[in-house]
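User: Show me a protein chain along with its predicted structure.
Assistant: Here is one chain, sequence first, then structure tokens.
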Amino acid sequence: MSDTIVELARPLIDRLPADPPVEELKLVLTFASFVWNCVLQGADPHELVLPNSQAVLDILGLSGAEAKEAVDDLVRRKNETFADDERLVMSVHVYREGGELRIIAASAW
């Protein structure tokens, strides 16, 4: 699941510095995972995710309109690239080990 959520969030991750702070990367991946889960559950991420995402939007430097476009892009990417993947994202952990960035995204069916 880790590689999948990173690939889903790649356009957002690319907006971060080359070696982003762990907390910022975790917020971006968590934001993407919330959108992913909304798509799977048939919920509207604009209603459920955006109102609670000001911290990540500030980190990414996104305006309200750009945030809506980012959510639309995540929904499109989920539906086009990962249409057959029905795992729910249960948690996202980002940490450094030995100077290297580690990402663990746990999922469930």
